[in-house]
Specification:
Layout: E1 5-11, E2 19-25, H1 44-61, E3 68-72, E4 91-96, E5 104-105, E6 108-109, H2 111-118, E7 121-123, E8 126-134, H3 140-143, E9 161-172, E10 180-181, H4 183-190, H5 195-215, E11 218-230, E12 233-237, E13 247-250, E14 253-254, H6 257-267, H7 269-284, H8 303-321, H9 331-339
Antiparallel strand pairs: 1-2, 2-4, 3-4, 5-6, 7-11, 8-9, 8-11, 9-10, 11-12, 11-13, 13-14
Helix pairs in contact: 1-8, 6-7, 8-9
């Protein structure tokens, strides 16, 4: 697992009922599925919690079901709406579902065992990806021809391509390496959850996030959601619409986590290549733990890169919400600094 959020259980879920818990957002970050990297990004956790809570409250007003229960001020036990706090939160209260172990034996994952243990209350073991555009380097270019998405060309253009309609794809959630699935494969992995309903929910989320982004002069390029299934109801889980979960740009500049990905590709290609090679080797050997095969550790970031990333998270959150939540430079200044990395 590569999450950089801490997870606290306050009331365990059961096969019938949702539990209660919280996400505590840290200043750690992850790129290339590595997990926790050597450095931290100041105020990153608070900016992501603030954006995530804002989006969940946006979904609520538009009748999109979620597991969100509110945010908490430091030291408090109760929950509040985001606008009732005097400072940016780092903790988000959520409803909890079950996530049984996913057995891995003889080179395959046993989803039948997962769903047998999950009953009627479980985290759907899928990531549902939505794309409004196809940037250079997107894995979609390797998996599909442009004609499948309405482009009258024989090969993908060298520049980013805007799609006339959003694309929805399904990927594994709990496997050691993300794997895109056909619709039939996704239907099997989803268990009791209806694939059509998952797609409808994903498109609704994408519409709301895209509309919010455009209202603040951002471009919403792609993202993903995770969902829970409870007694026949599907609801949005985890966090979405932040700079870690979604790809957003401002004035042509990619923001936050993508900036760090691209920095490592430019300045430390040997580590990125070692990660890719370890993942390939793990696939060939039918191993789940690819990191054990990687012979390089990720290098630390220079202080100027850390400061630039911190400003992007906080200035970006301010701009996205249209409110001065954080003491940060304006979004134009933060983007200009990012261009120089």
């Amino acid at each position: 697992m590569t999450s950089v959020k801490q997870f606290r259980i306050e009331r365990e879920p059961t096969p019938e009922d949702l539990g209660q818990g919280a996400f505590v957002f840290t200043d750690e970050y992850s790129v290339f599925d590595w997990g926790r990297m050597p450095d931290t990004i100041p105020r990153k956790g608070a900016s992501l919690c603030t954006m995530g809570a804002y989006n969940f409250e946006l979904f609520d007003t538009n009748h999109v079901p979620t597991h969100y229960r509110g945010v908490r001020a430091e030291g408090e036990e109760g929950t509040r709406d985001l606008g009732d706090l005097d400072s940016p939160p780092r903790e988000m209260a959520i409803s909890l579902t079950q996530a049984p172990d996913l057995p891995y034996e003889d080179g395959a994952y046993d989803y039948d065992a997962y769903h047998e243990a999950a009953g009627e209350n479980f985290l759907i073991p899928l990531e549902i990806v939505f794309r409004n555009s196809v940037p250079v380097g997107s894995s979609l270019r390797e998996r599909a021809d442009p004609g499948e998405y309405g482009l009258e060309v024989d090969s993908w253009p060298e520049e980013e391509v805007e799609l006339s309609e959003p694309v929805v794809e399904f990927s594994t959630k709990f496997e050691a390496q993300d794997r895109y699935l056909s619709r039939e494969e996704a239907r099997s992995v989803a268990g009791r959850a209806d694939i059509g309903r998952l797609e409808e929910l994903t498109l609704a989320v994408n519409h709301l996030l895209t509309r919010q982004a455009e209202s603040r002069d951002f471009v919403h390029e792609d993202g993903k959601i995770e969902c829970l299934y409870h007694q026949g109801t599907i609801a949005v889980a985890d966090v979405c619409g932040t700079f870690d979960e979604n790809r957003l740009s401002y004035d042509g500049q990619e923001l936050s986590k993508e900036v760090l990905r691209q920095y490592y590709k430019r300045t430390h290609p040997e580590w990125v290549e070692a990660v890719d090679e370890a993942k390939r080797a793990a696939r060939e050997r039918d191993r789940a733990d690819w990191r054990a095969l990687c012979d390089r550790e990720p290098p630390s970031l220079p202080e100027r890169v850390i400061e630039t990333a911190a400003d992007l998270y906080t200035a970006g959150a301010n701009a996205y919400l249209g409110s001065e939540v954080f003491d940060a430079p304006g979004i134009e200044a933060a983007v200009a600094a990012a261009r120089k990395l």
